Amino acid sequence: MKNNRIIIYFIGFLFSISISLTYFISSSFLEIYINKYYVSLVYILASVLSIWGMLEVPKLLNKIGNKKNTLFMGVLILLSLILMGISKNVFVVISAFVLNIISINLIVSSFDIFVEDFSKSSSIGKSRGFYLVILNLGWVISQVISIPIINKASFSSIYLLSASIMAFILIIFALFLKNFKDPEYKKISILKTVRFFIKNRNISKIYIINFILKFFFAWMAIYTPIYLHEYLGFSWDKIGIIFTIMLIPFVVIEFPLGRLSDKIGEKKMLLYGFIITAIFTLIMPFFEKPSLITWAIILFGTRIGASMIEVLSESYFFKLEDEKDADAISFFRNTSPLSFIIAPLLAIPILLLVPSFGYLFYILGAIMLFGFFVTLRLKDVK
Is the dihedral of CA 13, 15, 18, 20 positive or negative? Predict the structure, then answer.
């Protein structure tokens, strides 16, 4: 059990490096092949298919088990990264990108099952917090790695580097993860799962809270790099520095907050998280000069709040559900692809109506304030 925990933590760390290398450049990468207005549509397509796939995951788990499912999804991720790195054909690149998004979304819930398998209910906040710190450390390191590569090489080099890390992950996973026993995954229909989330008020509220956070991440991932690069004129090396600083709160504060939530609950800290994120997001359009220090501080501030929301929403949910509830976990994880559907669908008409690109962040700030009011109605679970 202890060896499995170390392996999953290490794999999670490498996996976060692999996917985060390409996360913030994906929208700009797609713009090489298609008009920027169609980039949102590609995200929507990939996310719709991801949600469909996530709803089918519990059936797959009962047939082949979580380890084989994880290996299969990892191979698909590896294939998609290689195709994006070597192909210049627009149809191949777009298809590979869609496959990549789907596979990543599906593999995340598989990792959740492994983590839940060795987590004790009395210290879920601590376990989730530590796991998230490891993942987010990978995100920070990836930004440091990607800066010189983007400057000296190309987007393709980043995708191939990500593929090489993914190949290493698959080798470690296949050879060293031993003695994992799949629980008997509960077979619940999609309709019953939806009814369960709606009927259980605390579950439905934490789902909405998690969705708002993932909506924030999706909006920022798609539109912040475009805003900084195309509208404010930041070079990619400076954007890399800004994003590295921006991600530090996820590494520094999530573990202590996870431990604290085991003692005092999550509600109060979630409220602070939404307020901090909303304030820093709302001030973004006021700063129109490409000052590295200013933008590093602003985006750092948004992520202080977002990191609080992330670890506390995870802790809250997994105090109520365990690894046997594959349907519930998959449904909870559909907030990420769902956000990549709704975010661009909302942003496209807004961009046609508002006088400047920066107004997108006023809308996002208002949505984070809505999350504050949802949290007010949440009941703590200790």
Answer: negative
**181 lies in some domain:** no
| C-beta separation of 102 from 49 below 8 A | yes
Query: Tens digits of per-residue pLDDT, 261-314?
Result: 878 888 999 999 999 999 999 999 999 888 999 999 999 999 999 999 999 998
- CATH code at 31? 1.20.1250.20
Distance CA 303, CA 219 (A): 13
- Quick check: is 195 in a domain? yes
Contact criterion met (CB below 8 Å) for 96 and 80:
yes
Q: How many domains does the chain have?
A: 1
**Residue 290 falls inside a structural domain:** yes
What tokens does 365 get?
Answer: 């700030």
Q: What is the DSSP string of 353-368?
A: HSSSTTHHHHHHHHHH
184 found inside a domain: no
d(CA 197, CA 340): 21
**How far apart, in whole angstroms, are the C-alpha atoms of residue 9 and residue 286?**
40
The one-letter amino acid at 78: L
Geometric angle at alpha carbon 133, from 129 and 138, rounded to 5°: 155
Q: What token pair was written down for 364?
A: 């996002």
Domain span at residue 240 reads 2-176+189-376
